[in-house]
Design a protein that fits this description.
Structural class: mainly beta
Mean pLDDT: 94
Low-confidence stretches: none
Strand content: 35-45%
Helix content: 10-25%
Shape: globular
Largest sheet: 8 strands, antiparallel, barrel
Number of strands: 8
Distance between the termini: 18 Å
Length: 148
Amino acid sequence: MTAPRSVVAARRCWPDLPAPQPGQLDGTWESGFLRPLVHVAPAGLAVVGLPRWFGKRFDAGQGANLVRSRGEGPLGERLPMLVTGDDSWCGGGPVAAISYAADAPRPWRWVRDELRSLDDDHLLGLTLVGRAGVVARATAAPFVLTRR
């Protein structure tokens, strides 16, 4: 499936996508933002502790967010993550659910990312804040991850 290019397209295809298979997530994934978030998401992430967000790295159910260093340096890891299988807060059905530690900096302790597969090398993600319910669904911010 072709990766959606807009928030509307992402929300439309989300319910029909499968959860990633075990082991499919392992590796490095580069992020991509969808219209219109492409213009505001990088600045927003910088404010909440992920300046120059590159994507995510996964290894056996754990991982971290990756940020670009200033200049040509290596990618840095921030905000360790735990990945588990769960039902989506946005319409049910299985997802790979990413959670952050209870003592993670604000707002990350309240953030949940959900992932579904577009194909073997592309994932559609939703970032949700709070708990399952109408508010989490209404404010879900989609993004795309591409295997690197």
